[in-house]
Amino acid sequence: MHPLDILDTPAAVLDVARLQHNLAHMQQRISALGVALRPHIKTSKCLAVVQQQLALGAQGVTVSTLKEAQQCLAAGITDITYAVGIAPAKLPQVLALRRQGAQLTILTDNLASAQAIGSFCQVQGEAIPVLIEIDTDQHRSGVAPESGLLLDLGRALHASGCLAGVLTHAGASYQCNTPAALQAMAEQERAGCVRAAERLRAAGLPCPVVSVGSTPTALSATRLHGVTEVRAGVYAFMDLVMANVGVCSADDIALSVLATVIGHQAERGWALVDAGWMAMSRDRGTQSQACDYGYGQVCDADGRLLPGWVMSGANQEHGIVGFDAAKPGAGAAPADVVQALPVGTRLRILPNHACATAAQFAGYHALQRDGTLADWPRWNHW
Amino acid sequence: MHPLDILDTPAAVLDVARLQHNLAHMQQRISALGVALRPHIKTSKCLAVVQQQLALGAQGVTVSTLKEAQQCLAAGITDITYAVGIAPAKLPQVLALRRQGAQLTILTDNLASAQAIGSFCQVQGEAIPVLIEIDTDQHRSGVAPESGLLLDLGRALHASGCLAGVLTHAGASYQCNTPAALQAMAEQERAGCVRAAERLRAAGLPCPVVSVGSTPTALSATRLHGVTEVRAGVYAFMDLVMANVGVCSADDIALSVLATVIGHQAERGWALVDAGWMAMSRDRGTQSQACDYGYGQVCDADGRLLPGWVMSGANQEHGIVGFDAAKPGAGAAPADVVQALPVGTRLRILPNHACATAAQFAGYHALQRDGTLADWPRWNHW
Questions:
Q1: Could you report the per-residue pLDDT of A84-95, keeping only the tens digit for each?
Q2: B247 and B216 Cβ atoms separated by less than 8 Å
Q3: Residue span of the structural domain in which B275 resides
Q4: Do B141 and A89 touch (CB under 8 A)?
């Protein structure tokens, strides 16, 4: 009997050998560059994964929600950076977590929030460490390294004893797909964040933390001079978007969705499976990349790639699996989809975006090296 | 104090007045057409909503997962159709639910499953009612009304005492956007399913159930001759996709995501909010429609539309809110986004696809007619 046969479908399967390879590879790389790794746990939201990251040498964690912070703290993990610009209304929760023992650092990029933080800290008699978010790629939030606002923010936060440093995330790295472009983006991210730190210091302000990172830049940087820590998240599981970016292969992807064939449209060459977008998520991150995998790349139940087979369409609980001879390594189309993938066949679908697919599940079925399964729950919601 | 001020963001807010309007409107419409309504509860996955649907006259429920069936049964709701082609491995769960008191009907469109059902029922000494899925629009699964396979399936299921009727879902109706096209699709759905029933009956096979439906066709059908029941789901909440299809207005949308402004990129006219794709889902259903709302249409905290403001981009916990003067009713762009939407502003974002957005949350904050909030949990996962 196959070890996954005991699972109902759809189910999230995590290949622990691949996970551990990905975790060790990143830790070794960042350690070799001489800086700390602070993993972003928004991908796994799972204590078993976070504990392995810390055991390998990670120094603290990055979270995307205060719920993740709360759950880390409950597990004894105290060094936590909440890397979403703080909404002032969340400051009481931040303070409560700090008073329960979390060394929780927060983020802002605007004076309104900085002033709200200052007032709050004054009233509460506590200094909450704050990083200034730096915009190094114009993809989202943050202040420009050369801006006057950077120094205004630095002064405002320092006045309340809260200034802890600078942080950036070059999310634009997801649009890169050559080693040269990735290295250039990594250097742009590093140089912009370090420049912001140097300007703060030149103005007489403290800037102990210089935090950069994204999985593509973390795996492409050749030097991290001036940086104190790297954050990255999706590297733990990897996904098809990262394979298209060029920082992993499909065989590195640790997360897959186990699905069962429930029918066919033989004339159209389709197999229908019982995993739709509710299981895969609606993420179509590979749509604009070199290889569009639809809703995912199909593998057999052992996780071996079935080149050419992709989930070409999805409804809530239905996935349409079809063969595309134009996909890399696809070979010739099968004569008969009903024979190729009979009803009851179990498949594993690799996700476009692991963070989004993982979030559709309450937890993972961790397929361990010895073939046994463990239940690893997730910290979903807020 | 605003009733929603007590909520942390992001949060799923359900406007109960709009919900009840939507529920009553559909029930009246289907009742007036002389057939039963069997709501698809995959949108809400919420007992409080389902109970209101039943109180208004719904006859049984449709589910997308066996977990929904299990939860309904636990609440005393027994008349249940599981409207995803059955994976034979799920038959023991189906049987267990039936033996616990569920009148659970299942679905198939292929002989392999029909034979598996027949064998299983023979061994277990129980007949499980099965509907044959009919393909009336080539969008997904099902057998053609004129196919030989239809009769083969009917005979196979009848031999094991399981044949209960036919079911179709014209999901292609989501691509329609004129009353004429919607009415034509509703008639295509009706006619195809009724034709399949007639062919079965002409072959001497029983076909008591003739089940059709999708929200667009249910709200557009002008006659349902030969149909016994209509299924529809998203009508309960409505969404921007349905508004583009033309079967509701934006003011009918009952679900929104409460979010807080956390910063700006003033030169780009952006406000950043603390609701990203983790809250909205990655569903971009309006991308291919007449009006592309990005990740959602922005409203103020009272749910009033802010024409022109949409969530134009999203990362995991960040939403980018921008102004698009080309959107209907937008008027002129504001001179300063920082003044228009200051840090701390609370907004409510209407979703592209309510089923997908709702699934990102553990439950709803139901905003009742008297302004109070109730917690309505969801039945997530499988």
A1: 999 999 999 999
A2: yes
A3: 4-8+248-377
A4: no
